[in-house]
Amino acid sequence: MKNTMTPPPCSPSLCDGRAARWWPTMACTRLRDCCLARHWSIVDADQYDETERLAILDSYDILDTPAEQAFDDVVKLASQLLDAPIAAVNLIAKDRQWFKSEVGLGTREMPLDDSICKFALLEAEQMIVPDTREDARFARNPLVTGEPGLRFYAGQLLKTKAGIPLGTLCVLDLEPRPHGLTPQQQFVLATLAQQIMSQIELRKVVKDQAVLIARQAQIQRELRESQLRSLEVSHQAEAERRRTDALLEAAPVGIVIADANGVIVKMNAENRRMLGVDPEATDLGPGQPWRGWWADGSARHGQPLAAHEWSLARALLGEESPRQVIEIAPFDAATPRRTVLNSGRPVRDETGAIIGAVIAQMDITDRVDAESALRTADQKKDEFLAMLAHELRNPLAPIMSASAILSNFHFDEGVVRRTGAIIARQAGHMTSLINDLLDVSRVTRGKVELDTAELNIKDVIADAIEQVRPLVTRHQHHLDVLLAPVQVMVKGDRKRLVQVFANLLGNAAKYTPDGGRIELLLEARARTVMVSIRDNGVGMSSELIDSAFDLFSQGVQGLDRSQGGLGIGLALARSLVHLHGGVVNAKSDGAGMGCQLEVTLPRVGAAAYGG
Fold it and tell me: Where is the Histidine kinase domain (predicted)?
């Protein structure tokens, strides 16, 4: 091995990479400041760049670590065997050189700009500089030109098994050595460098083993924690399953769970009750005698269900929410048929494939029976009202005749007149009630036929006011009528519309204290007509408003019981308004706050009349 590897004088070739042609395997990729580089990189021409080299050095985790006897012993031995006052294990880091062990330096770190060893990384194995002052690379190095005045340098590379240089084992002298190192000394330096590198590798192996052991311990801990979590999740899942089973059993709705083949895998208690299935029975599959009939009131009502029409079959075919009202025959022949509302949904796996279905069904037999009973009762009620009206109307003609005859006799004229007035008033009242009963009966049975024509709504209102004028006068009410200034036409039955507004005005008069105020307002809109009747009477609670238009509904009766009716006036008015294509609403701010009734009817001929 040569005692010196002096590079050529500074030239552009050192900066453009052509120097790699005469340096064996390492090349300087960049020399800044033209020569004697201050910032530089070491590059393996085939595999590595400086960033990778520094990363590999960091992986050994040796920088900035405390002194270690194994390294100190080798450094001392190198100093003694090579008769060098200065020796060090030098690692070339980023922007600095750091000494793992040193003799004669008195420091653990130096700037990279002052480094001699950094040039050794450009050599194949060893770099020997007999006299630094005669080497152009160190002409301006302060460690050479100033204190301590380094004159001799010899460094052996510390390389990984992959050939990556981390630093050097170097010896330095304050006197030049013109002959460099003898072959034997070169061998000693190389051997000791191998010892240093072995210590570095051993140190890394120990560290890696410690990391591996720690990682294995961590994995073991994580495995134990995972097992504990899995066990906890298993317990939670079991508890959840028990809760779900309890919920299914307690639910008042029948639940059926089937697999992809339609085999029942779960059926709760309510569904077993509906089907008359023994609680311990397990054979609930397709082989059972499932019998059902449509009960939805459609054209197919009463027809038996085909196999593919059941909610379970439809859900298994992919229908998302099949719903049906059917009548089923329980498996137990002694159990009567039940009417059920059921719905199904397919169960899918993570790929969307159907793996089963869930069916929920509610026993609505009692509700269907109750609705049927209500319909029957409603029909009987209408029949009763019709019969009652006819039975009560028969005595009225004699009463009316008797009152007329009595008024013509020459008895005490005052008595006869008062008696006749009472009979006439009560007979008229009874006639009004019975006519209302007859009207309600006709409307509810769809027997009312309207004699429609185009009407001026103002004339209708005038007739209604005329009918209720005696009642308003008797209670000393202030009646204000505000009519739209334009002609307002509607299409309807004059007699029935007069009846509607007379009922509404009469209702306001009955439930407004004496001396109260009643206001009727007619508004003409583009397509509709609205008539509102407002009073400052007893008003209505929110609960009463909700049922104000129900048949036989009445409010406060304390104002004048003699004016109380059967509670059919508003119900009749609403029915008649609906027959005319309109709506009627009630508003009130509460008891004692008055009430407002609004009737909205379709308007006709608005363009012709300028509305």
Answer: 387-605
Would the pLDDT of 487 be above 50?
yes
CA–CA dist 165, 44 (Å, integer): 9
CA–CA distance, 281 with 473 (Å, rounded to integer): 79
Its pTM surpasses 0.85? no
String of DSSP letters for 507-575: HHHHTS-TT-EEEEEEEE-SSEEEEEEEE-SS---HHHHHHTTSTT-----SS-GGG---S-HHHHHHH
Return left, alpha or beta for 253; rule: phi > 0 is left, psi -120 to 50 is alpha, else beta. Answer: beta
Helices (H) and strands (E) in the chain, counts: 14, 21
- Is residue 346 within 8 A of residue 356, CB to CB? The reply is yes
3-state secondary structure of 182: coil
Spatial distance between the Cα atoms of 93 and 433, rounded to a whole number of angstroms:
113
pLDDT above 70: residue 415: no
Mean pLDDT score of the chain: 80
User: 135: how many CB neighbours lie within 10 A of its CB?
Assistant: 19
pLDDT for residue 237: 87
* Distance (Å, whole) CA 320 – CA 347: 9
pLDDT value of residue 189: 95
At a CB cut-off of 8 Å and minimum separation 6, what does 331 contact?
275, 276, 277, 288, 289
Q: Is 462 helix (H, G, I), strand (E, B) or coil?
A: helix
Confidence at residue 591, expressed as pLDDT on a 0 to 100 scale = 84
